[in-house]
Amino acid sequence: MTGRIGRLTEIDFDRVPGVLGRIVRERAGDYAGADAAAGPARARALRFHAALTGADLALIAEVKRASPSEGAIAPLNPAQAAQAYQAGGAAAISVLTEPRHFDGNREALRAVVGSVTVPVLRKDFVVHPAMLREAADWGASAALLMVSVLGEAVGEYLPLAHHLGLDALVEVHDEAELDLALAAGAEIIGVNNRDLTTLHIDLSVSPRLIRRARDAGFAGVLVAESGYRTPADLASVRGLADAVLVGTSLAGSGDLARAARELMAR
Ligand SMILES: O=C(O)c1ccccc1NCC(=O)[C@H](O)[C@H](O)COP(=O)(O)O
């Protein structure tokens, strides 16, 4: 299939509140006028999906040099950080590519893809189809789609990601967003414990929404995201989630392989 896969609904980013709203409006400005054509279909390897299934609780370790919550975290070399995470048992690597608040960029993603054998997630605030095309061009296996940002349009971005050969981590933070992700046909759902409008973290959000997804008959992959610092923090999602996504506590640890190993130890 070539060209556009249908015309995408225009999204009103002014409706997104707080810190998240500011970031997505900046990203929308960055991509204003970018080419929205999907281009040819690419084969789906489903590597990210496969990496998160089968294990007791898989780790997606994040290359995160800065954030709105913390400011500067650590001046990581992305390739070295990713190699350390892989050595520490990570099943996949998440790389932030947002430049203003997370000190991310394309080079970081490409360097990570070239230095590890595990699949790589492009973690950014996807507001334009070109961002998915870039993710595929740069070698990512998956991209993040946030229901809080895309709203019902997540149902259009999801097939576009798949058309480009990408898995999609569809992120939610409350019941309404989860119901939208399920209706859109998400195969991998991430539940973020962090309220991205206020930056408040509540570790009870993931177990609550993961139970709701399973009760609704969801048979796909469920990922608990944000705020995990100690093995004890993970107790509430062991046996429920397929994977956890961890950034700050690992990135700021000084010994990334050891921190990954110790966090996941039972
Ligand atoms: O981390 C932030 O401060 C943040 C602020 C605004 C939007 C997104 C933000 N983080 C994105 C993430 O979801 C996390 O990087 C990821 O889940 C890892 O979280 P953590 O382990 O708490 O760093």
Automatic annotation (TrEMBL):
Residues of the Indole-3-glycerol phosphate synthase domain: 47-263
Organism superkingdom: Bacteria
Pfam families recorded: IGPS (PF00218)
GO BP terms in the entry: L-tryptophan biosynthetic process
UniProt entry keywords in alphabetical sequence: Amino-acid biosynthesis, Aromatic amino acid biosynthesis, Decarboxylase, Lyase, Tryptophan biosynthesis
Enzyme Commission designation: 4.1.1.48
InterPro entries: Aldolase_TIM (IPR013785), Indole-3-glycerol_P_synth (IPR045186), Indole-3-glycerol_P_synth_dom (IPR013798), Indole-3-GlycerolPSynthase_CS (IPR001468), RibuloseP-bd_barrel (IPR011060)
Pathway membership, UniProt: Amino-acid biosynthesis; L-tryptophan biosynthesis; L-tryptophan from chorismate: step 4/5
One GO molecular-function entry: phosphoribosylanthranilate isomerase activity
Catalytic activity: 1-(2-carboxyphenylamino)-1-deoxy-D-ribulose 5-phosphate + H(+) = (1S,2R)-1-C-(indol-3-yl)glycerol 3-phosphate + CO2 + H2O
Protein name: indole-3-glycerol-phosphate synthase
Organism in which the protein naturally occurs: Deinococcus hopiensis KR-140
